[in-house]
């Protein structure tokens, strides 16, 4: 299943053009420089398109590499599926258009932004910052805080005032500010750093604190003062102006990039272009024009966008006709298993059932009675609702189709192996219930394998139908020149 699914998804997300590549050179030149390697449903496929797909899917790191000849059938099958998706008009679905244009625009929109645009925004941010900070500049300070509720009683206020004064006197007597802050400050964020605060500017702290701070020069200390948070003592460490733009340019640019400045620039530019067009353009039409222009100048970009377009189509039609159709059709899966039962064998018997642990010996039999005669798919829900449906858990259970070595209790009791079964905390009684199988009894015992095989059968039938429906011709002379011209 996984191999087939991987192959389908790889082709889905690495799809190429199902439409003629719109080349920017004349047809006469195109015939000689980029000849048609094959025609599928009347649509020519250029050699460069085939080469792009082949080289991308056989690059370094690809395990299952193909020769050009081996790749041809895979490529044709992929193109046929895309043609079928286009015939089914899956490209007109709103969900498809939304997802495809979202991806395409991610490739196109960055072209509207220049380095100069980002530089201008960074300078604008810097100028606004300088204006906001003003001539008072920045400061780096440390403080000691004694927290005091605004609703504190007069007695509590007096106690806090006496204590802050004693701290201030200790500082005047030569006590180390940082050490004292670590011991007595009630601002946990700064106390662990000796009271040190981050660099601050105007408007970044409360008014009482800001007034006291800007009255100090580097090395000076304030007297105790009261703010809505309590009593403070500030020590001014440094006063400075905003550094020159060049010294902050990298940090500012990184900051505004993280804030989505490029997306805003694109939006503003597109809106301006729409306004200047006097109603003749829309954002969508501008993006379409830019996409066409960029793709005509960059074939790799064209193929990149086209492969995503076709990949979405391929995924949708494959999901409808193969993957989901197979995985959700239980009757078809059961019928497929019945016809191909001999394919599904186990080297050794397996145990289909439950391994469980209970607190009360009476529950050993109760568990068996709960699920006996019921479909295996319902056992888990029956056990949950019967025994573990409230806050008191009565059982611990593992359900499945067990091979030897997967579960020690099953190994001991069913496969009769001499193994240790570690006790389950709070659930000391162990038991099993189910049956030992020599081979799968129904498709649910090997569902994953059956789904994968049934998907493969559906796909083969689908491809055969597509091969009959859509004519395909391969120019072997041109094919022989792939990657050799």
Name some characteristics of this structure.
9 strands, 20 helices, alpha+beta, 485 residues, flat
Map the helices and strands.
Elements: H1 2-13, H2 27-33, E1 36-40, E2 43-46, H3 47-57, H4 68-87, H5 94-108, H6 115-133, E3 138-147, H7 154-172, H8 177-184, H9 188-191, H10 207-214, E4 225-227, E5 230-240, H11 245-258, H12 261-276, H13 283-297, H14 299-327, H15 330-339, E6 350-358, H16 362-371, H17 379-387, E7 395-402, H18 408-413, E8 429-437, H19 447-469, E9 472-474, H20 476-479
Antiparallel strand pairs: 1-2, 1-9, 3-5, 4-5, 6-7, 6-8
Helix pairs in contact: 1-14, 4-14, 5-14, 6-11, 13-14, 14-19
Structure notes:
The protein has helices at residues 2-13, 27-33, 47-57, 68-87, 94-108, 115-133, 154-172, 177-184, 188-191, 207-214, 245-258, 261-276, 283-297, 299-327, 330-339, 362-371, 379-387, 408-413, 447-469, 476-479; strands at residues 36-40, 43-46, 138-147, 225-227, 230-240, 350-358, 395-402, 429-437, 472-474. The protein is flat, with a radius of gyration of 37 Å. The strands form 3 sheets. It has a 3-stranded antiparallel sheet with strand order 2-1-9. It has 485 residues and is an alpha+beta fold. The two termini are 39 Å apart. The chain has 20 helices and 9 strands. α1 (2-13) runs antiparallel to α14 (299-327) and α6 crosses α11.
Short structural summary:
This protein is of the alpha+beta class. The chain contains 20 helices and 9 strands. Helix content is 53%, strand content 13%.
């Amino acid at each position: 299943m996984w191999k087939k699914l991987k192959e389908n998804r790889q082709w889905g997300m690495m799809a190429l053009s199902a439409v003629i590549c719109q080349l920017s050179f004349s047809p006469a030149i195109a015939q000689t420089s980029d000849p048609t390697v094959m025609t599928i449903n009347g649509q020519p496929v250029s050699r460069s398109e085939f080469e792009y797909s082949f080289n991308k899917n056989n690059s370094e790191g690809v395990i299952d590499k193909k020769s050009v000849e081996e790749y041809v059938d895979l490529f044709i099958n992929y193109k046929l599926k895309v043609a079928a998706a286009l015939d089914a008009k899956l490209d007109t679905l709103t969900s498809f258009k939304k997802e495809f244009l979202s991806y395409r625009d991610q490739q196109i929109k960055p072209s509207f932004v220049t380095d100069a645009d980002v530089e201008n925004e960074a300078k604008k941010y810097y100028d606004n910052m300088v204006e906001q900070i003003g001539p008072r500049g920045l400061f780096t300070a440390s403080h000691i805080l004694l927290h005091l509720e605004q609703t504190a009683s007069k007695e509590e206020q007096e106690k806090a005032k006496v204590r802050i004064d004693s701290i201030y006197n200790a500082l005047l007597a030569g006590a180390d500010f940082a050490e004292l802050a670590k011991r007595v400050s009630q601002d946990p964020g700064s106390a662990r750093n000796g009271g040190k605060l981050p660099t601050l500017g105007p408007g970044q702290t409360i008014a009482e604190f800001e007034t006291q701070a800007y009255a100090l020069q580097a090395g000076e200390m304030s007297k105790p003062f009261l703010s809505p948070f309590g009593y403070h003592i500030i020590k001014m460490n440094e006063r400075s102006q905003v550094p020159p733009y060049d010294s902050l340019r990298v940090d500012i640019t990184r900051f505004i990039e993280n804030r989505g400045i490029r997306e805003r620039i694109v939006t503003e530019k597109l809106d301006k272009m729409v306004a200047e067009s006097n109603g003749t353009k829309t954002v969508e039409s501008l993006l379409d024009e830019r996409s066409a222009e960029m793709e005509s100048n960059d074939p790799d970009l064209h193929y990149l966008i086209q492969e995503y377009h076709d990949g979405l189509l391929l995924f949708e039609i494959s999901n409808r006709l193969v993957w989901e159709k197979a995985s959700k059709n239980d009757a078809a899966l059961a019928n497929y298993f019945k016809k191909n039962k001999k394919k599904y064998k186990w080297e050794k018997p397996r145990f289909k059932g439950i391994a469980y642990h209970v607190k009360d010996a009476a529950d050993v039999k109760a568990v068996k009675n709960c699920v006996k005669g019921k479909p295996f798919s319902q056992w888990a829900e029956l056990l949950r609702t019967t025994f573990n449906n409230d806050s008191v858990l009565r059982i611990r259970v593992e359900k499945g189709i067990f091979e030897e070595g997967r579960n020690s209790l099953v190994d001991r009791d069913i496969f009769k192996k001499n193994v240790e079964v570690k006790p389950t905390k709070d659930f000391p009684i162990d038991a099993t219930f189910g049956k030992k199988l020599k081979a799968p009894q129904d498709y649910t015992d090997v569902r994953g394998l059956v789904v994968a095989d049934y998907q493969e059968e559906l796909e083969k039938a689908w491809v055969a139908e597509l091969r009959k429906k859509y004519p395909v011709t391969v120019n072997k002379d041109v094919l022989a020149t792939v990657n050799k011209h």
